[in-house]
Amino acid sequence: MELRFTEEQQMMRNMVKDFAESEIAPFIDRMEAGEFPREILKKMGELGLMGITTPEQYGGSEMDFTSYILAINELSKVSAVVGVILSVHTSVGTNPILYFGNEAQKEKYVSRLATGEYLGAFCLTEPNSGSDAGSLKSRAVKEGDHYKINGSKVFITNGGEADVYIVFASTNPELGSRGISAFIVEKDTPGLIIGKDEHKMGLHGSRTVQLTFDNMLVPAENLLGNEGEGFKIAMANLDVGRIGIAAQALGIAEAALEAAAAYAKERVQFGKPIAAQQGIGFKLADMATAVEAAKLLVYRAADLRSKGLPCGKEASMAKLFASKTAVQVAIDAVQVFGGYGYTEDYPVERYFRDAKVTEIYEGTSEIQRIVIGKNLLK
Ligand code: CAA
């Protein structure tokens, strides 16, 4: 079996590759210095990349899921920052409204998210509720035609930059995860306080903030789905979102492999290129094999999703393996570069710093194993 993409998918891949190399690569230094890539996102909106899978009816490009994954994969080869911004914006920022929202909510929000006029964020994690997402403590109480929400969130990707936040809070704490509800919250909602901007090991340029809800008043019409459906909305969208993070990890691994292989062919020690020394040659062979395996898992999960088939187990497998591959291949790439790999003069130290979080966000590797294991027991 060979990976074969349709003509349309290949066009998407080529277009994104050209865009990433011509527009994003020159922006890397600014992102590394902490700048959020607003102007890049604006151009991506113009190219239809902020709503790749969103139906045309709501301003999207209405392409298949594999095209979306190809886009994240190609973007992440150049910038894992832009990769994660797009993945969060689409998979867990836009899709919860597209799949669980009513017509008015879709008209109002999805159409703006799809064009890039709005940026999306997803607010599930709390200081004391990370992997155990069902134990979250944010509380939503209905008062007349509003919900009053109190609580706090951490590690919110796109936070502070986003226009729309999908917020999870409990409307009935006695019911545990069955009491969690989802809300669409606009950025200028009274009581929404943007907190600390985390200083991260990698992904500089992507924004990760704390949020506080201080008697935040959300119109009742912004409840997403029904009360108590929030946890399922979160889980269903994370199922698919994880393929996006797997594609991001794959992009980092491919970039690290490419850089290491090119360097190993040029760098001469003991009278021949280091690629021809078995110690490095074997390392490159293992790196390439892992990347190929990750690619098959990522596109297998994407293909299932494109066909509308269940893909939760395959998405978790893809994320588990691709993130592990990204970390190992980035470590190996630094090793191939030797002392130069430890400097900022070469991109491999950035790949190394950016790779690690793919084993953590949208469910740690341990959580992926729980999901895979539960699916095996079904
Ligand atoms: N789809 C739909 N419903 C689901 C589901 C799924 N994939 N998984 C579980 N559910 C439902 C169950 O059917 C069950 O419903 P009932 O109560 O009606 O029977 C309910 O949810 C509870 O299920 P579990 O008992 O299996 O749930 P759990 O409490 O044991 O947790 C878990 C399961 C998989 C560990 C979950 O807590 C989890 O995924 N944790 C990780 C959280 C996570 O990924 N956070 C990422 C934050 S977002 C992020 O990182 C974005 C970013 O910035 C990049």
Automatic annotation (TrEMBL):
Which key words tag this protein in UniProt?
FAD, Flavoprotein, Oxidoreductase
User: Which InterPro entries does the record match to this protein?
Assistant: Acyl-CoA_DH_CS, Acyl-CoA_Oxase/DH_mid-dom, Acyl-CoA_Oxase/DH_mid-dom_sf, AcylCo_DH-like_C, AcylCo_DH/oxidase_C, AcylCoA_DH/ox_N, AcylCoA_DH/ox_N_sf, AcylCoA_DH/oxidase_NM_dom_sf
Among its keywords, does the record have Flavoprotein?
A: yes
Q: Which residues form the Acyl-CoA oxidase/dehydrogenase middle domain?
A: 121-216
Stretches assigned to the Acyl-CoA dehydrogenase/oxidase N-terminal domain: 6-117
* Superkingdom, taxonomy of origin: Bacteria
Task: Provide the family line.
Answer: Belongs to the acyl-CoA dehydrogenase family.
Q: What is the lineage of its organism?
A: Bacteria, Bacillati, Bacillota, Bacilli, Bacillales
Give all residue intervals belonging to the Acyl-CoA dehydrogenase/oxidase C-terminal domain: 228-377
Which Pfam families does the UniProt record give? Answer: Acyl-CoA_dh_1, Acyl-CoA_dh_M, Acyl-CoA_dh_N
Transcription recorded as keyword: no
Cofactor(s) needed by this chain: FAD
Q: What is this protein called?
A: Acyl-CoA dehydrogenase
